């Protein structure tokens, strides 16, 4: 995957969404919400999508 402006922007957006979803999952876990499983699936989907990018992008575009 080429590091075009569009791809880097998508990568950064996915990182941001993953941080937000992880924080939401932590909150739902603490409050024992029944929506935890839905949020956990979303976190897993975002992690899977981020894995489609080259591994070194996490170092280059933190």
Describe the structure.
The mean pLDDT is 92. The radius of gyration is 13 Å and the shape is elongated. With 62 residues, it is an all-alpha fold. The protein contains three helices and no strands. Helix 1 (5-30) packs antiparallel against helix 2 (36-51). The protein has one domain.
Number of helices: 3
SSE arrangement, N to C: HHH
β-strand amount: under 5%
Number of strands: 0
Tell me the quaternary state.
single chain
Shape: elongated
Rg is 13 Å
| Mean pLDDT reading | 92
Helix content: over 70%
Distance between the termini: 17 Å
Low-confidence stretches: none
Q: Main β-sheet, in a few words?
A: none
Q: Structural class from helices and strands?
A: mainly alpha
Q: How many domains make up the coordinates?
A: 1
Topology readout:
Elements: H1 5-30, H2 36-51, H3 57-60
Helix pairs in contact: 1-2
Give a summary of the structure in a few sentences:
The chain has 62 residues and is mainly alpha-helical. The protein has three helices and no strands. The longest helix is centred in the first third of the chain and has 26 residues, at 5-30.
Keywords for this entry:
single chain; 62 residues; mainly alpha; 74% helix; 3 helices
């Amino acid at each position: 995957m080429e590091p075009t402006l569009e791809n880097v922007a998508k990568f950064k957006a996915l990182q941001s969404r993953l941080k937000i979803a992880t924080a939401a999952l932590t909150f739902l876990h603490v409050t024992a919400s029944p929506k935890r499983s839905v949020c956990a699936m979303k976190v897993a989907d975002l992690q899977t999508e981020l894995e489609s990018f080259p591994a070194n992008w996490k170092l280059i575009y933190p």
